[in-house]
Predict the structure.
Amino acid sequence: MRAKKSFGQHFLTNESIAQRIADSLILDGGPANVLEVGPGQAMLTKYLLEKDFNLKCVEADTDMVDYLHAHYPTLHGKVISQDFLKLDLGAVFPDGAGGSQPFYIIGNFPYNISSQIVFKMVAYRPIVPQLVGMFQKEMAQRIIATPGGKDYGVISVLTQAFYDGKYLFSVAPGNFNPPPKVQSGVIRLVRKETAIGCDEVLFRKVVKQAFSQRRKMLRNTLKPFFEEKPEALEDAFFTQRPEVLSVPAFVELTNRIAEQNK
């Protein structure tokens, strides 16, 4: 089975790394629902099967789906042959009452859709308490970046508003077939249980607008939000650039905008 560029496939070949990723989920004890994204040739899957998980896998490559069925009979009925980005996550682990049971997401993610996987997790965060995944190292660093650095941006803020992130370990290209041209990194994201403290739709709009020109001061990039009260932009707060604002600062900014637009 050769890797396909169209699916962004790079098959992990290092057994110890696969085991380490499987061990990286933090569980409260007892059986847990787990969804693996992009199992491929099942290097990670076989270690997940050893655990007390109610495991399901979502795989877009039909050849890989056939491979999983042929080599792992215990996965029959548990492999979803679909694009993760088009999958209704609320229907993967139904609770029998029209809702969804919570579940964890794990995987060696295709790098070409890894940011979209994270944003989808955030959208479904009421039922996804945790994610462990392998990303291109640069992307992994962006997701968990702190204010003030070049890696800090939209995905950092929109993820960290709802999840606490931790960089676990790096993985060199030689641990894959074919080897990617970049380093890889594994991170863990654990959902925060406190509310964000502002209008979430407006929050996303503000963050994206602020970073649309990340080197400019907020008073320049956020003008569209202050058309009725442009004088508010004279506050010293708006002399800052978005890359220095923490998540709480963006929440404060969102609340300021909401208040002045009443």
